């Protein structure tokens, strides 16, 4: 399907980014998977080329490009030439923007340039062993001790958890009001901040998803993001973009899974004909191609609306719900049409399949997305 949404300059950016991935990422993917982590230097290499926090203002070392099309291009290229476990998008576009929410210029100057260069790797820690979707139930808490805040609690499933130099930690900040949380900037090396296991996962093998522990960590006042009681507000602010990121990435991976499957069924033969010639295969591919094209049109529209600052929570939730569910369907059918090969680790489709399983759970599960969409349908 012809798309006509990218400018010539953006296509040049795509070309440069693709070359970077082919040179720096593709050859190392296997060793990262084995190690369960992406080497820190990769963030610096991305930073040197201007590929991190592209939205950041030039005074912080960024390119000042907030146009989401550039991020979309990066995610589309990542699906083919990158590695799904290299969470530079989380660093750049999910966590980085939090640093602008506090409205504290000195704080921005302390952290954003390091994040742009890739020397300061970012993570955000909300989920706890007993709480994920229902953030109001977190137990981590911070006490105001006058000169500093005292942070206690534990977090789990934290992306970039081992590599992170700066973790934005959500914790309750008012014992009299359990609905008030703050976002605390915890730096590598602070006393009482410890990392637990780098968790073994079904997919995203190169991603360092970890447990984090905070025992009487003294958080200086200048490491509080904005108002210590407005954490929910700061978290909500970026939700539409976070869902769009998830949707865009999932659709790109689904497109990749489709292309691999199409190539495979054209090559492979059974009962004297190509797998592609069975009516079942033709119909499956026709259905998936139709859904992918329809989803692509919707996501491209969401990006356009987002660039105008008008992407609503419902629209972003529909995009995330549909694209992640579609990614699940395409990768599942892809494995099926590959036959036994689809179950083998050496075939990329098997990795796309296992990687895809988390898309419907994190960044707001499909059930939570349905709740948001249902609210807009029934309660407005
Ligand atoms: C690879 C990976 C990376 C992650 N990275 C991060 C990270 O960087 N930072 C971070 O803070 N967290 C991270 N997470 C955690 C992730 O965000 C949570 O797993 C997710 O929010 C779901 O929470 P939960 O696991 O506690 O599931 P639960 O909230 O316990 O949900 C269990 C099931 O109940 C359903 N459910 C819950 N509430 C409702 C409802 N109201 N209506 C209907 N159904 C409902 C859910 O949809 C789900 O199916 C990561 C997780 C993984 C696996």
Spell out the blueprint of helices and strands.
Elements: H1 8-25, H2 29-35, H3 40-48, H4 68-81, H5 88-95, H6 105-117, E1 122-125, E2 141-144, E3 148-158, E4 166-172, E5 181-187, E6 193-198, E7 210-220, H7 231-237, H8 239-267, E8 269-270, E9 273-274, H9 279-307, H10 313-338, H11 348-356, H12 366-378
Parallel strand pairs: 1-4
Antiparallel strand pairs: 2-3, 3-7, 4-5, 6-7, 8-9
Helix pairs in contact: 1-4, 4-8, 8-9, 8-10, 8-11, 9-10, 10-11, 10-12
The structure holds flavin-adenine dinucleotide.
Residues 123-127, 132-133, 157-159, 201, 204, 209, 358, 361-362, 365, 367-368, 371 line the site of flavin-adenine dinucleotide.
Question: How would you summarize what this structure contains?
Answer:
The chain has about 375 residues and is an alpha+beta fold.
Uncertain regions spanning at least 5 consecutive residues: none
Which structural class do you get from the secondary structure elements? alpha+beta
What is the mean predicted local confidence, pLDDT?
Answer: 97
End-to-end distance:
36 Å
SSE sequence, one letter per element: HHHHHHEEEEEEEHHEEHHHH
Question: What is the count of distinct domains?
Answer: 3
By CATH's scheme, which homologous superfamily of the largest domain applies?
Butyryl-CoA Dehydrogenase, subunit A, domain 3
Estimate the strand proportion. Answer: 5-15%
The number of helical elements comes to 12
CATH architecture of the largest domain: Up-down Bundle
Number of DSSP-assigned strands: 9
The level-1 CATH class of the largest domain? Mainly Alpha
Overall outline: globular
- Please give the largest β-sheet: 4 strands, antiparallel
In spatial order, strands of the major sheet run: 2-3-7-6
Q: What proportion of the residues is helical, as a percent range?
A: 40-55%
């Amino acid at each position: 399907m012809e798309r006509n949404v990218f400018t010539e300059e953006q296509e040049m950016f795509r070309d440069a980014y693709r070359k970077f991935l082919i040179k720096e990422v593709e050859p190392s993917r296997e060793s990262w998977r084995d190690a369960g982590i992406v080497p820190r230097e990769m963030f610096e290499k991305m930073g040197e080329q201007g590929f991190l926090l592209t939205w950041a203002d030039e005074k912080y070392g960024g390119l000042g490009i907030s146009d989401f099309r550039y991020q979309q291009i990066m995610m589309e290229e990542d699906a083919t030439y990158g590695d799904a476990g290299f969470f530079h998008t989380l660093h750049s576009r999910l966590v980085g923007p939090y640093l602008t929410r506090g409205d504290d210029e000195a704080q921005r100057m302390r952290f954003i340039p390091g994040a742009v260069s890739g020397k300061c790797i970012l993570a955000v820690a909300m989920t706890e062993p007993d709480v994920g979707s229902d953030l109001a139930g977190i137990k981590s808490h911070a006490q105001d001790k006058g000169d500093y805040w005292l942070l206690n609690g534990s977090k789990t499933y934290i992306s970039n958890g081992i590599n992170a130099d700066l973790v934005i930690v959500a914790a309750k900040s008012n014992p009299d009001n359990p609905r008030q949380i703050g976002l605390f900037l915890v730096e590598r090396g602070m006393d009482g901040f410890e990392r637990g296991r780098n968790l073994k996962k079904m997919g995203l093998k190169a991603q360092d998803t970890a447990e984090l522990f905070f025992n009487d960590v003294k958080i200086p006042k200048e490491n509080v993001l904005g108002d210590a009681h407005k954490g929910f507000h700061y978290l909500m602010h970026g939700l539409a973009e976070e869902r769009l990121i998830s949707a865009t990435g999932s659709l790109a991976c689904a497109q990749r899974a489709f292309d691999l499957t199409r190539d495979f069924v054209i090559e492979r033969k059974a009962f004297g004909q190509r797998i592609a010639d069975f009516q079942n295969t033709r119909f499956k591919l026709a259905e998936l191609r139709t859904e992918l094209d329809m989803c692509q049109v919707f996501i491209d529209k969401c990006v356009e609306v987002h660039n105008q600052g008008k992407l609503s929570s419902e629209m972003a939730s529909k995009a995330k719900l549909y694209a992640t569910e579609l990614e699940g369907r395409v990768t599942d059918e892809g494995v099926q049409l590959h036959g036994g090969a689809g179950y083998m680790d050496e075939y990329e489709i098997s990795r796309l399949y296992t990687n895809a399983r988390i898309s419907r759970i994190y960044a707001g599960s499909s059930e939570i997305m349905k709740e948001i969409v249902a609210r807009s349908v029934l309660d407005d």
